[in-house]
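Lecture 7 notes: from sequence to structure.
We start with the chain below.
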Amino acid sequence: MHQVQDGMSWIAVWILAIVEGLTEFLPVSSTGHMRLTSSLMGWERTPLLNLFEVFIQLGAILAVLSLYYRRFLVGPRIYFKLIVAFLPTGIIGFLAYDTIKVLFNPLTVSLSLLVGGVFLVFLDRWSNRESSKFASVEDMPYTSLLGVGFMQCISLVPGVSRSAATILGGVAVGLNRVLAAELSFLLALPTMFAASGYEMFKQYRHIPSDAWPMLLSGAAIAFVVALLAVKVFVQLVQHYGFKQFGYYRILIGLLFLFLYAQGRVRLD
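Predicted structure tokens for the same chain:
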């Protein structure tokens, strides 16, 4: 297979972009899945691979923006609401950046997937209702949004999943399943843009000029796949709830532990 740049091949670009698009907005941890995928495929963890995993998140961000852009054209209220919800993660993430990097190890990711899976299985019991305390994200008070924001901080631990943490927070403050998922999508915009933007700001000067086709094609694939994944996810949540994602997380977490014990997977 033709090598694109720094040991990466086009097959690596396509596979990782598809994994990112499929998992970014599902409560299963996209970071954990990309790390597991690259490790199982035997791809060396180079600076370019790390950068690629960050860059293709921009494609996923654009997918959500394209689906919900009308919400941002109505008025400024939605901006204020999302900024308030983002603040806890933004502040704590910035202050604890170095500590978070240390947590990228197989044991942390595996246990996070397992524990998060158990919570998702039981989440259906807490959220098995059609009614919602609030009619929309715009109607939520700032105190509730802050609560969801602090729940999102838990996702700074690798393997927790930003989507799972925000959905759990949304249900905890009174949202039904669909609105909790919608809040998770919308809150992804400032959160992912800040995280990806910060990484890109630190590394963009070191991007080789011939790596841009790889980065842009990966982002484009992630965009298309995420677009489909979000639509399907909403339908699944509406009809079946969250427990199937919980069972999946438990299985993949056990797989992580097994492969780690066999010495076949590294996440560093």
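Points to note: The first strand starts at residue 3 and ends at 5. The CA atoms of residues 73 and 226 lie 22 Å apart.
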